[in-house]
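Render this sequence as a predicted structure.
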Amino acid sequence: MTGARRERGRPWPAGRTLPTALLPTAALLAGVLLGTAGCGVPVQDSPTPVAAGQLPYGLGSTAPTTTAAPTSEPSAESPHVYFVGPQETLVARPRGVSGQTVARQLGALLADLQQGPDQDEVAQQLGTALGPGITLHVTTVVDGTATVDIAGSGDLPAGRGSRLASGQIVLTATSVPGVDSVVLTRNGDLVEALLPNGELTDAPLTAGDYAILLVAPAPAS
């Protein structure tokens, strides 16, 4: 056996034949190599579609798409805009809103308030204390308190009209879920709002501050 051994890693010397014990192994290895070479993957002229059920998990799925938040249909539970009724009370009218955040929903609702009553609501003698040229913008909504900026070239009403205008904004804004109070600014400066009892305040305003405007005043005796 000494003459058939060689050191690991050195080639077999030229001219010497393999030992008889190694010949079957070499023949078997050559057959395997030749068989593998003859079994190549066939080449196709055009791709063949693969059924989705045969694909590995995840390869047949499509990336999720995002769509704009739909506008909800108005209902009794919808946010409301508040207009001035015949007896100078504030009347709620439901509105559908769109937007994926509270600020966007509030902005859409205030835009409806800014536009004023539609034809059907005008026929019901509903109006607004917000004069032409007034624009309403949501600055922030933080911890349930919305800051609404009153901008534009229009003048703010005085007296009872000021109470009604503030009430329209506050009651409309707090009808949006997630808005509990409102701070009013005028072109970025804090505004002292006129409450129904005649007091001025720059504190956050709530729906309760203007709830009295929802009830018709008692007739004078």
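Summary. Residues 1-14, 16-44, 55-76 have pLDDT under 50 and may be disordered. The CA atoms of residues 69 and 99 lie 6 Å apart.
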